[in-house]
């Protein structure tokens, strides 16, 4: 396929995906009553405005709280884009506004306290928001489509297409999309004996050191980091090596999610003494609190000579906005908003100078893939053109590339074409969770968007630029064994420090049949553990059903609780245990059974989540509830071997699987067949009695 055809296929697929995403939200709003949206965790209802204030960067923040407790689980979290809508049907459809959640509390399913949240409003909608604030209405909040991300990917790809059509040469783009007929790049193989690298971390293993040497010597490098192999430590060491090469080089570090880039920044912050070298781009609401010290938004308001002037202007903006509520004349109100607009213009000019200075003194800039094209970074190029500053970035690192859509990965590269980027490092694991795609009814779109940059480059170059980290430091060798054979060609090795660890090695934990086994499988075949559908009656659209209908298995959930009790009786601490299920309905049921409620807690410190919620995480013990148990041998989500690979590689000392082996083996899925057959030979196989688990 030609480069133009590749780019066009991305553009077409993104347009389709965007339309599906928008259609899904519209279907939810039209089909499902507010109570149904709340039950699905998609909305928070019964809210009133309790306060409004000026937040970071002069943004208007609305604070809302429930007037009474509505104990349902919500998927909303800091950084989500939401719409605020009034209950009243008399309100015009335009009477809604959009913003970013900057704070949320008591939204978890086992909380019976009223939920409260704070939302930073888009500047373009502050006039509407001010009207809503003083309307004395009740509101609900719902997560919505972030169309800005689609538009950004679209514009990035169009720039890339134009760039290639003009046959402009760029060292990195030419590697990722080589010109037809031009000889492909060959990797330079590092020689450890000739290398003069002095590693900062002396505990790195040979595969980690080789990956770093390779990355230092090549324009393109792919670091393949299976579970527990220290990918983040390797990336952190590489960053330190890159900025130590000379005194002016600057690295842009990106990932698809905020938690991924914050994890790297947190590790870097511990190893780099000069904190001014580290800069985090992005809305503070989306950052870990431990990284606020590096936030560009926060630093530009604090700790600089210009900060007091900027804060004075912000206070004036707040004062003016507050006065608008008492202005009845529409003409006077427009005049007041014009004054706010002028104050904001002055604020931005002063902020730009401060921001440019902060960027200039940094050596490592950390952002999400979308955040890498932020206004602050792009404005820096104007100062370069004016002769004030030098090159912005020399190197780009993209972590968790296998969870990223390829169009996302082009954002930092195309946004910073003016930089003299000489090196691209990709890190991730193509055998773990893929990027999230909403489309489920178009095979072509699913294939185009499901093929990551990691996948495409390996297809193009083979393993020439890929370096596998092969020593894992997380789990017992037996827990690792099947994943290594099935997903990594048997190349993973357990470090001696974890090779034989079990729960009974933990301080104070009894040694018995519940704690000495690294793998336990409760086989639920038979009629005693049937799965059931939990499908909202309101879900009429096929796409809505696909994403939000779910399944649960009540007896299996009680079996989970049974095993938890055995572990607790053996003195395993609650926070050492994690419970995973691929089905949200089962997760909700398990939270009620195992966590209990605020008024009646059972084991509140045990973490229970979907597979996605545990990506990149670990626990001493993981209990995996598979749910599926039926005569038709239908297994649904369990066919997704990358998702199962994540689940089975989260535990350190014990993996306890609860599932129907017969259903899995009859499903026709080779991965499930291999896993169950391996488990029959290697796990402690148990056949539960329903009567015993309810005792």
From TrEMBL:
It catalyses: ATP + H2O = ADP + phosphate + H(+). It is found in: Cytoplasm; Nucleus. Gene3D superfamilies: 2.40.30.270, P-loop containing nucleotide triphosphate hydrolases. Its EC number is 3.6.4.12. One of its GO terms (biological process) is DNA damage tolerance. Residues 200-474 form the Helicase ATP-binding domain. Keywords: ATP-binding, Cytoplasm, Helicase, Hydrolase, Nucleotide-binding, Nucleus. InterPro entries: Coronavir_polyprotein_1ab (IPR050534), DNA2/NAM7-like_C (IPR041679), DNA2/NAM7_AAA_11 (IPR041677), Helicase_ATP-bd (IPR014001), P-loop_NTPase (IPR027417), SF1_C_Upf1 (IPR047187), SMUBP-2/Hcs1-like (IPR004483), SMUBP-2_HCS1_1B (IPR048761). This is DNA helicase.
